[in-house]
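Thread: "does anyone have the structure for this chain?"

Original post by V.I.:
We have the sequence but no experimental structure in hand. Need at least a predicted one for the grant figures.
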Amino acid sequence: MWDYEFIRVVERDPSKSRKTRTFAVLNKRSGGVLGRIKWHGPWRQYVFVPQMIDQTIYSAGCLTDIADFIVAANVRQRAGLLEPTA
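Reply from O.Q.:
Generated one for you, tokens below.
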């Protein structure tokens, strides 16, 4: 689990069919699911996928927290520190 100012990121249960990890992004106050961070193969990087595209709003601080986690996850993936799930 990773805590930021506005969000909490939790690794989701590994899927046997996925080669990379998936993370849930939660609102730190309410615990509500904002979306997930997953590997996007065509772009060869982690991306944020909102839970409800037209029903969620994000402040600059929240988006910064999400971006910070994605940057760190991409660095760790490229360095081989995020092992593929089996």
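V.I.: this helps a lot. The CA atoms of residues 76 and 82 lie 6 Å apart.
O.Q.: and The mean pLDDT is 89.
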